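Hi all, long-time lurker, first post. I run a small reading group and we've been trying to get comfortable going from sequence to structure in the token notation. Rather than ask abstract questions, I figured I'd post a concrete chain and ask someone more experienced to write out its structure so we can walk through it together at our next meeting. Sequence below, copied exactly:
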Amino acid sequence: MATAQLDLIVNQVQQLPINEQWQVIERVAASLERLTAESAKKSLPSTESYFRQLADQWRRGTEHTASVKQASLHPAYQRIIGMGPAAVPLLLQELEQAPDHWFWALRAITDEDPAQAEDSLAGAARAWLAWGREKGHR
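-- Answer (accepted) --
Happy to help. Here is the structure in token form:
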């Protein structure tokens, strides 16, 4: 929308009684919220598909790697870390479906470690999943 059009709309709204101005503001805010939610839904599949692609690359590229540290240094794993907070729900979903060594990525992204006291893959996965539920991710 052009600046001149926006200025015209603002001037028209300013001429309304104050209670009607608030109604307009509330409608605009609701519309923006709806558009933002719709946009987030539309972008999720591309984020999710990118994540799935990287996760598959990581699994294929590290299936014969015994070292968790070395597997975590794989370029696809590092790209997942680079996705930042958008990857957290996807990582938790991975842990829920088929636990794997996603803990380094989760720690790097969240700067938390709820699995610190765990000594098994299953225990660490349970700790991270509980953390995710607590934080509202699942």
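A couple of things your group might point at:
The chain has one domain: 3-134.
Residues 3-134 form one domain.
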